[in-house]
Amino acid sequence: MVTIPAGSTLVLRCPGEQPLALISLGEVSAPFLAELPPIPVLGPDGPGVRRFGILELVSSAGVTWVEAELRDGVLTRLGDPPTDVVQRRGAARKPGLYAATGTAELDSEPGRRLVALSGHVEDVSTSGLLLRAVPAGGVHLPAGIVRTLLHISMPWGDLATTVTTVEQRADLLRGTYAWMGPADEEALRAFCAAR
């Protein structure tokens, strides 16, 4: 089963243009990639504009790349899909919205500095998470975040963890856990494994 949750960021790479970050407006799913229906997205174009390119498709099954067309706010897969996802998600994971506050450590000259931030975790797994957050009084995360100390409101209580940044874009930060208490680790494992 391939599922693209609402609010996911999809990247369309068109020849000779900057990559476009598109936000999915609704959850889309299919048993197989070849059966994936058109994806409604929020994009920069007005009506009537068509773009063709390679879509970086991040789904519940992993990451793959497919040819796609963007037209009137809808992404449509073109041609034959690849035979498999390129990166398989091995860690148990669960999408959702979990309130989070914390402190980001920036790798900036002349030294590292700390910035308070708040937001929510949109996707949590046993190996890492996806955080959407902003600093106090800011509109997007500052560049160069290397590590973040987070307090996340989970269904079983407060989860305290340190996250090492893997990827950062605007107000999104994807990272892996650098530290977590053993009790929280066990609770997270049970939470992600539950269906």
Automatic annotation (TrEMBL):
Taxonomy, superkingdom: Bacteria
Protein's recorded name: PilZ domain-containing protein
Protein source organism: Pseudosporangium ferrugineum
Species lineage: Bacteria, Bacillati, Actinomycetota, Actinomycetes, Micromonosporales
